[in-house]
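Q: Please design a sequence for this.
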C-alpha cells in the first residue's frame, strides 16, 4: 500500500509492506544518503537515528501480535523527516498510524484548519500513539502472566510449560525492541531542537518519559515471569518427590515378599516350606519393613 497526503507545505508519504524496488522508486526523487536507503531495503535493522542538514532518518520498532502463533513479531518503522516532508515505511499495517493519517486526510482544509501543524508534530503523534499502545501491551502481558500464575498453583499441566515459554519469549522480544530506542529518542530530541527551533522539544521529552516507563514495565514483567517459572519448577519438584516417595514405600513393602518368593520358588528343600503360616509370616515381615521405612522418612523430615 502506498499513499500520499498534502498538508499545507508538508508532503506525507505512507507506505506499507512495499517491495525493495518499490521503495527505491518512492525515495529516488529525494536526495537521501545511500546508506539510509539501503537500511530501508534490508530487514531486521537496529533502532537508529541519522541526522543531516536537511532531514533526519529514523528506524524504530514496535510489536505486531501474531494471533495464530501468539507471539510478537518485529515491525520496523523507517522514517524520513524534513521540514516539508514526512515519509513512513512500515512492514505491517497499523490502526494507530492509519487513524492519524485519516484524521489529517479528512479534516484538512486550508481555510478552516487552524491548528499549527508541522512534520515534527505529526511524528510526535505517531510515536505517542505507538507508546500508548505499548502500555496496553504490557497490561495484557501482565494479565496473561497472572492467569498462568493462578494455573501453576491450581494444577501443573504440560500446556503451562509452553505458555510460560511463549510469554518469556515475548517479553525478551519487547525488551530487545525497546531498550535500544531510548538512545534514539534522546538523539531525536536533540536534533529536533535544531530542525524546528525548540518548537516541539517538550513533546519529545514526554516521549522519552513514556518510553522509560514502558522499559521499566517490561523489566518488571521479566522478573514476574521468572518468578512464575521458578514457582512452576518448584511445584513440579514437589510432585516428583511425592511420587518417588510413594514408589519407595511401595518398593519397601514388596521387597521382602519378592525376596521370600524368589527363594521358595526354587525346587529345593527350605525350612517351613510346608507350613501354612509361612504366608502370614511373610506379610508381617513386609509390614514391619514398611513401618521401618516410614519411620526413616519421618526422621529425615525432622532433621
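A: Design:
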Amino acid at each position: 500500500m502506498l499513499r500520499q497526503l498534502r498538508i499545507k507545505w508538508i508532503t506525507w508519504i505512507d507506505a506499507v509492506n512495499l517491495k525493495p524496488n518499490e521503495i527505491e522508486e518512492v525515495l529516488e526523487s529525494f536526495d537521501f544518503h545511500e546508506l539510509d536507503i539501503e537500511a530501508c531495503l534490508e530487514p531486521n535493522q537496529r533502532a537508529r537515528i541519522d541526522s543531516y542538514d536537511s532531514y533526519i532518518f529514523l528506524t524504530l520498532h514496535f510489536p505486531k501480535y501474531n494471533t495464530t502463533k501468539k507471539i510478537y513479531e518485529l515491525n520496523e518503522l523507517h522514517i524520513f523527516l524534513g521540514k516539508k516532508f514526512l515519509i513512513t515505511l512500515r512492514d505491517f499495517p497499523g490502526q494507530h498510524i492509519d487513524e492519524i493519517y485519516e484524521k489529517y486526510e479528512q479534516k484538512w482544509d486550508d481555510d478552516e484548519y487552524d491548528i499549527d501543524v508541522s512534520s515534527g508534530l505529526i511524528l510526535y503523534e505517531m510515536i505517542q500513539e505507538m507508546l500508548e499502545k505499548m502500555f496496553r501491551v504490557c497490561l495484557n502481558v501482565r494479565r496473561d502472566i497472572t492467569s498462568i500464575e493462578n494455573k501453576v498453583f491450581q494444577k501443573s499441566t504440560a500446556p503451562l510449560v509452553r505458555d510460560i515459554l511463549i510469554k518469556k519469549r515475548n517479553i525478551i522480544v519487547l525488551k530487545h525492541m525497546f531498550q535500544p530506542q531510548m538512545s534514539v529518542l534522546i538523539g531525536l530530541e536533540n536534533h529536533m531542537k535544531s530542525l524546528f527551533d525548540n518548537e516541539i522539544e517538550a513533546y519529545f521529552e514526554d516521549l522519552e518519559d513514556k518510553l522509560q516507563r514502558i522499559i521499566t514495565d517490561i523489566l518488571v514483567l521479566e522478573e514476574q515471569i521468572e518468578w512464575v517459572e521458578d514457582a512452576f519448577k518448584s511445584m513440579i519438584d514437589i510432585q516428583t518427590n511425592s511420587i518417588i516417595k510413594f514408589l519407595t514405600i511401595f518398593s519397601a513393602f514388596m521387597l521382602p515378599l519378592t525376596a521370600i518368593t524368589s527363594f521358595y520358588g526354587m525346587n529345593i528343600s527350605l525350612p517351613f516350606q510346608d507350613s501354612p503360616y509361612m504366608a502370614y509370616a511373610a506379610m508381617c515381615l513386609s509390614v514391619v519393613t514398611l513401618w521401618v521405612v516410614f519411620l526413616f522418612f519421618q526422621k529425615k523430615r525432622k532433621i
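Q: Thanks. Anything notable?
A: The chain has a mean pLDDT of 79. The helical segments are 20-27, 34-41, 95-107, 119-154, 158-178, 181-196, 201-264, 278-302.
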